[in-house]
TrEMBL record:
Originating species: Lactococcus taiwanensis
Name listed for the protein in its UniProt record: DNA mismatch repair protein MutS
Gene designation: mutS
One of the GO BP terms on file: mismatch repair
Residues that, per the record, bind ATP: G601, P602, N603, M604, S605, G606, K607, S608
Protein family: Belongs to the DNA mismatch repair MutS family.
Cellular component GO terms held in the UniProt record: cytosol
Leader sequence residues: none
Keywords: ATP-binding, DNA damage, DNA repair, DNA-binding, Nucleotide-binding
CDD domains per the UniProt record, alphabetical: ABC_MutS1
Pfam families, alphabetized: MutS_I, MutS_II, MutS_III, MutS_IV, MutS_V
Length: 840
């Protein structure tokens, strides 16, 4: 039989009912307690001691607790692991409560809404998705910076691509997912899925031009955030529409294989394009650069604008150095603004804000030294918020402590009343010093001193041995082991004045601080705009620094051209890692008429590197960066598709070949004549003829129906003959140097097809045993004497017989012809077979 539930537990259960998917932290005195399953699970995850409530009853309730002062740490840990945490606080002073203390959830912290990560620079995007018939809408928000955007997407794979590129950890689902959608988001992408199927009718949102489905998804996102955060969100920016079509499109596979912002090995920044280009000095700049790399531009004008400024920064070394110094003094304005909005800003945050603002005029002055139309726009947007700077400068003390309850926050001179209290406190201090001296002289107690503590207030400290000399007008306040504490009429009077001043001044300081906070809130949107401008300046100086350091050139981009000509190009990241001396530069030329370049060459010769080099150069150029080359002329591409390497798609668990084919399909379906396609060893994942046939058919298809600029690396040398039938296809190969049976890879791309594969040479480099290598050589010679599959796949040409190409076989055939099988003994037949085999 169920026992009667205590009123406290009933309150817990009532609250928990509304938060079934979250750990409920239930404030009880100095602890947050967890109960039931929450307690069992949290105890395991957080290594807490699991105890129980009602220990001796028939049904003890599992319980675990964390001390309130350490709660943030535990909450962070849970949230980082992908859980939600609901925090229920005591809503009234327990001492004054009648019956059970009122409690309510004051915030739900989720992976997509947490903003308290100490010193994290990265964005934390929370995404919401909505489906209407075949269309999708996606909205995302970073609660820590206030960024809020929305777009429409045509298919679910685009949705998945956006979520991945935003690196979101939590997705708010606005519709009922079907099984396959659920599987992808939940199982494969390991996202926390939070539902927001309905919309509160009262919810309102300001926005510009949005379609109905966009408004719907943005509202659902907002509803979810309001529901979980339960606090002021005044820093949220107006939701802004964007189009993925306005940027160079790259799907998730492409971004991953090109290692744009995270490397494949550890999912970290190191060794990526982002890593290479990041010389930013501000947190906003660092975040913006990542977005630039995820979303290169496609507008010639917009790209030219960025490049013009990079050029200016490049040309003005001293101004740039000063600029960099000034940028270093700018803190994370976006995060500071959101802390203000959340009411979480501490005195130190205001000091950082003021310090940042004080650097803005310097930045402005430096930019003004660079006369240029584009600069002018940036300069105009640089708003130093002098009113806010003044406010903080006048109100917040440079020595302010990190807390807001200790006092000492507000500067003297800011508020006359506060100054009076402070004067009283100061006077009191000297009165006390005087009183101490007077009483010391009067009583003759040399060790007499006046001390203060919270419990006893001000008191005369008298040691045991001096007790006899205590005068009449002292009264006892407390007795300790070796001393006693006394008061006096005079001391009490001073104390009262001081206590009042102290109490009132700390209340007043708090009020003044709150008012500074409130006043600052009015500047949030201006602060956010300033943050964006500074981020942009920071990104551009970063690109200039890298361009100078790595010796890049400004590419010439032409929107409507189809002409690619890169002289002495390099792979930006490989070069940076291996050193410029080691890297062999390569020209890349695809004139107007050439769509497809077929690249052959031995393994490890540099085919993949060459192709990636091209893709990265295109991306860098469209970001507005200079590029690693002696010169570069490029069209502006609308999309990049890649099928690179034979690595399995781990998240989906599909087989290599299936992944290859679906990526190839994606490219073929979506690419236009303005796209760039990179196919690396396509067809490798299946049987040779199968793969070769598909590879050829795909090349022909791209050639006939798409006309995208395409680099196709292959180990099927047979495909090189395609240049005879396909007008827009060129052969290139990676040159090798063969000397005394040793092969050196020159990593140099050269016209025409390659003639040999040097796989055995690679095996030799890899250190395989020499007799094994000899054997491989022998097998190779035999195989090479075998006919290869038909170049143009025509039926009759495939009827080639095993023996008709090599003269060595003719002897064997002659012998076979001469043979009189009827006259042979079994032994002779066997011997003859051996003979044949040996000859072969
Ligand atoms: P492939 O695709 O032909 O098998 P890769 O492009 O993977 O060859 O290159 C193999 C290795 O050769 C790379 O790891 C790289 O270190 C080196 N390499 C490739 N291209 C160059 C180059 N242009 N200069 C110097 N080293 C290169
Ligand atoms: Mg390769």
């Amino acid at each position: 039989m169920a026992e009667k539930i205590s009123p406290g537990m009933q309150q817990y259960l009532d609250i928990k009912k509304d938060y079934p998917d979250a750990f409920l932290l239930f404030r009880m005195g100095d602890f947050y307690e967890l109960f039931y399953e929450d307690a069992v699970n949290a105890a395991q995850i957080l290594e807490l001691t699991l105890t129980s409530r009602n220990k001796n009853s028939a049904q003890p309730i599992p319980m675990a607790g964390v001390p309130h002062h350490a709660a943030t740490e535990y909450i962070d840990k849970l949230v980082n692991l992908g859980y939600k945490v609901a925090v229920a606080e005591q809503m009234e002073d327990p001492k004054k409560a009648v019956g059970i203390v009122k409690r309510a959830v004051t915030q739900v912290i989720t992976p997509g809404t947490t903003i308290d990560h100490a010193n994290a620079v990265d964005n934390n995007f929370l995404v919401a998705i909505e489906q209407q018939e075949q269309r999708f809408a996606l909205s995302y928000m970073d609660l820590s910076t206030g960024e809020f955007k929305v777009t429409v997407l045509q298919d679910f794979s685009a949705v998945v691509g956006e979520i991945a590129s935003l690196k979101a950890r939590e997705v708010v689902i606005g519709f009922l997912l079907d099984e396959s959608q659920k599987k992808i988001l939940d199982k494969q992408m390991n996202l926390l899925l939070s539902e927001q199927l309905d919309l509160p009718e009262t919810l309102q949102m300001e926005h510009g031009d949005l379609s109905a489905i966009e408004e719907q998804v943005a509202l659902k996102l907002l509803a979810y955030v309001k529901r979980t955060q339960m606090r002021d969100l005044s820093h949220l920016q107006e939701v802004e529409h964007y189009e993925i079509k306005d940027f160079l499109q790259m799907d998730f596979a492409t971004k991953t294989s090109l290692e744009l912002t995270v490397n494949k090995r550890e999912n970290k920044k190191h060794g990526t394009l982002y890593w290479l280009l990041d010389e930013t000095k501000t947190a906003m700049g660092t975040r913006m650069l990542r977005t630039w790399i995820e979303r290169p531009l496609i507008s010639e004008v917009a790209i030219a604008k960025r490049m013009a400024i990079v050029q200016l920064f490049l040309d003005h070394f001293f101004e740039r150095s000063d600029l960099i110094e000034a940028l270093k003094g700018v803190y994370d304005l976006e995060r500071l603004a959101s802390r203000v909005s959340f009411g979480k800003a501490l005195p130190v945050d205001f000091l950082q804000l003021a310090h940042s603002l004080s650097n803005v005029p310097a930045i402005k002055n430096i930019l003004e030294l660079l006369p240029q139309e584009q600069m002018k726009q940036l300069i105009e947007r640089l708003d130093a918020l002098p009113e806010l700077a003044d406010l903080i400068h006048q109100s917040i003390s440079e020595e302010a402590s990190r807390t807001i309850t200790e006092g000492g926050i507000i500067k003297t001179g800011y508020n006359p009343q506060l100054d009076k209290y402070r004067e009283a406190l100061e006077n009191g201090t000297s009165w006390i010093a005087q009183l101490e001296a007077t009483e010391k002289a009067r009583t003759g107690i040399s060790t007499l001193r006046i001390d203060y503590n919270r419990k006893d207030g001000y008191y005369f400290h008298i040691t045991q041995s001096q007790l006899d000399s205590v005068p009449e007008h002292f009264f006892r306040k407390a007795t300790l082991k070796n001393s006693e504490r006394f008061g006096s009429q005079e001391l009490t009077e001073i104390e009262e004045i001081m206590l009042e001043a102290r109490e009132k001044s700390s209340i007043l300081e708090y009020e003044l601080f709150m008012s500074v906070r409130d006043q600052t809130e009015q500047y949030i949107s201006r602060l956010q705009a300033l943050a964006k401008t500074i981020a942009e300046i920071d990104c551009l100086q970063s690109l200039a620094v890298v361009a100078e350091k790595q010796g890049y050139v400004r590419p010439v981009l032409t929107e409507n051209s189809r002409h690619v000509e890169i002289k002495a190009g390099r792979h930006a990241v490989v070069e940076a890692v291996m050193g410029a001396q080691e890297y062999v530069p390569n020209d890349i030329a695809l004139p107007e008429q050439t769509d497809i370049q077929l690249i052959t060459g031995p393994n490890m010769s540099g085919k993949s590197t060459y192709m990636r080099q091209f893709a990265l150069t295109v991306i860098m150029a469209q970001i507005g960066s200079f590029v690693p080359a002696e010169s570069a002329a490029l069209p502006i591409f609308d999309a990049i598709f890649t099928r690179i390497g034979a690595s399995d798609n781990l998240i989906s668990g599909e087989s290599t070949f299936m992944v290859e084919m679906s990526e190839a399909n994606h490219a073929i379906q979506k690419a236009t004549s303005r796209s760039l396609i990179i196919f690396d060893e396509l067809g490798r994942g299946t049987a040779t003829y199968d793969g070769m046939a598909l590879a050829q058919a795909i090349i022909e298809y791209v050639h006939e129906h798409i006309g995208a600029k395409t680099l196709f690396a292959t180990h099927y040398h047979e495909l090189t003959e395609l240049d005879q039938t396909l007008e827009h296809l060129d052969n290139v190969h990676v040159a090798t140097l063969e000397q005394n049976g040793n092969v050196t890879f020159l990593h140099k791309i050269t016209e025409g097809p390659a003639d040999k594969s040097y796989g055995i040479h690679v095996a030799k480099i890899a250190g395989l045993p020499s007799d094994l290598l000899e054997r491989a050589d022998l097998i190779l010679q035999k195989l090479e004497n075998k006919p290869l599959p038909a170049k143009k796949v025509e039926a009759q040409e495939e009827q080639l017989s095993l023996f008709d190409i090599d003269e060595n076989y003719s002897e064997i055939i002659d012998k076979l012809k001469d043979l009189n099988v009827d006259n042979m003994t079994a032994r002779e037949a066997l011997n003859f077979l051996w003979e044949l085999k040996d000859a072969l």
